[in-house]
Amino acid sequence: MSSKPVLLSLVISICSLCSYSQDKSPVKYGNVSEKDFATTIYPIDSNANAVFIADIGRTEIEGNSKFGFSLVYKHYSRVHILNKNGFEAANVSLSLYKSGSNEEELDRVRGITYNLENGKLVETKLETKSSVFTDKMNKQWIVKKFTMPNVKEGSIIEYEYTIKSDFLFNLQPWNFQGEYPRLWSEYNVSIPEFLRYTFLTRGYKTYDITKKDTRSTSFVVVDNGGTGATERYQFNANVDDYRWVIKQVPALKEENYTSTLRNHLARIEFQLAERRPPLSYHSYLESWPKVAQKMLDDEDFGQKLSRDNGWMNDEMNAVTLGASTKEEKARRIFAYVRGNFTCTDQSALYASQPLKNVYKSRNGSVAEINLLLTAMLRHEGVPASPVMLSTRSHGVSYELYPLMSQYNYVVVKAELDNRTVFLDASVPLLGFGRLPVRCYNGHAREISNEATALYFESDTLKEVKTTSVFVINDDKGNIVGSINQVPGYYESLRLRERIREKGKEELVKDIKKSFGPDATISNLMVDSLEKYDEVLGLKYEFDLLEEKQDIIYFNPMLGETFKENPFKSAERSYPVEMPYGYDLTYNLQMEVPVGYEVDELPKSMVVKMNENGDGVFEYRVSQSGNGISFRSRVRMERAYFLPEEYEMLREFFNLVVSKQAEQIVFKKKK
To answer: What is the DSSP letter of 375?
Structure first.
């Protein structure tokens, strides 16, 4: 099981919801007056660029004319735009689902922008016919967009719209929190007794109001029949009305080391679980093995793997010629796919074209490229299965039930002669048996008969980097030196990508920036550049051309310091999610500059972040005759830290930054 605290909670039954308050929504559409402009700074966030005065949603289920039921979702927002940096809040983007010829419908859009001009309220209405635009994202999603008119600093905008959907599985989620503060965030959902949904909650905010009422209502469905005769059916059923309100919700701002804010927003989501009498009974929540089997039978997933794929024969014979073991075959096939196919979409779960087309065009999504890799491995007798996961930027997946919308990426599990490896051929320079950092996001699922749960945890990754520096005096008395550096694997990957894109010259410029304007960098050598399974080796020489002063201040870290604390905020309400742990070791041996003596050496110290040694900082410096030895080491044994550990983490890095900024002081001999 995953070691991370689960960020999602599943609420199967909410019958115990209690009503804590009868508070009503604070605003009504069209009811804006001059006094609403009086507040220009809100106590919830004095630096806010915009503030949602109210954000209110409601979803109801109604009978339709297609002999079924529809979701009717209504959304209202009122926003105070405080300055030009808040203009983005006037842009509204709505995702609508489609399947075949059936798609969700945006209806009844209206909006008003209010401005206070010369003490009078001026209204500008949204012209919906000319202001709503449509973008097609893919075959399943379209986006409707509109921008509120005449927005200025100080404007108040309000808008509302309705979305009608025949897809009962797509009950709209609700974000109680976002990039702007919300004074009032409310969601109402009415669910009839013949449907059951599971509720998924995220985030760390608690509800100010939770309420559930039950009532009886009449439902009408119409069957057009297709023959001209229309039949109308009516029946009564109980409906549960749920209401959730959170007041004074602060903006959730992205901090360093955050995989995605989506994991931490106060949010509620829904999954259709059952259809009940008086409708025919059906359960929608299936086990992982059943869902995996459906994916294996799916034309856009597993069917592409189970075919003979005889068209691969000639190419695979050439690729694997002379390979005798499963590992040799797997390495050659992986290198072939990685080196010859271009990934056109790094977020995809299904293939949208036949694998033969992918093969011919040499282009495909991450799903298509890695399904092709799976098929090629199987063709050559290497047991392989696709693995679906959610990348870090997409959010943590919930492992108890198969909620397919939570997955967006496919990699490959391959069984070699004596070990299991995971492969991703969509990343051009990634090594065999490696996955990109974005895949290390907890729960994943092998799509096979067993549907095995897998876990890719960032805590299992560690970047080990070593830097060795030698500083001497040349025959002119200048300070010169050389550096040998071995970066960690993922830093090596980034450097390979940068060198391929920009060339070594840009890397030299970057190194020079870290040394300062008075240094020269020469003779850069990069080892193992084409050996993608290995880390790089960097070697270069430098010359510090600083003008000789009576006192020289010398930082022994030479640009390899933590220049600032990555944890700037005084507090943090959600976890720290580093991509990996690390072990950074820096060693320096140097001669005291000619004509100088040591005036001041920093003090040595070793500090543990906590009793477990989850973080350790070592700083040692000593002098022996004309030589100085220096060592700095920062180790982080974990990548994931809870909010209550944040202060400890922040103070630890305050110390590291402060100490690594200290300098050796040399003074001229008298």
So the answer is: H
Distances (CA, A) of 60 to 63, 188, 219, 546: 10, 8, 12, 73
Return the structure tokens found at 86: 């808040």
Helices (H) and strands (E) in the chain, counts: 10, 37
CA distance 225 to 534: 66
CA 203, CA 627: separation in Å to the nearest integer? 55
Query: CA torsion sign, 596 to 597 to 603 to 606?
Result: positive
What are the φ and ψ backbone dihedral angles of 169, each rounded to 5 degrees?
-75, -10
Which residues fall within 8 angstroms of residue 286, CB to CB, at 6 or more apart?
Answer: 294, 402
d(CA 330, CA 318): 14
What pLDDT, in 10s, does the model give residues 62-112? 998 887 899 999 999 999 999 999 999 999 999 999 988 899 999 999 999
**Residue 128, token pair as written in the block:** 């919906």
Pairing between strand 581-591 and 462-473?
Answer: parallel
Prediction pTM value:
0.86
Q: Map out the domains of the chain with their CATH numbers.
A: 9-20+49-283 (2.60.40.3140), 288-456 (3.10.620.30), 462-668 (2.60.120.1130)
Strand ranges of the sheet holding 133-136, from the earlier edge strand across to the other edge:
102-103, 91-99, 141-147, 133-136
651 closest CA partner among 606, 600, 615: 615
Show Cβ contacts of residue 604 under 8 Å, excluding neighbours closer than 6 positions: 619, 620, 621, 622
Spatial separation of the C-alpha atoms in residues 428 and 431, rounded to whole Å: 9
d(CA 536, CA 374): 29
Phi, psi of 34 (to 5 degrees): -60, -35
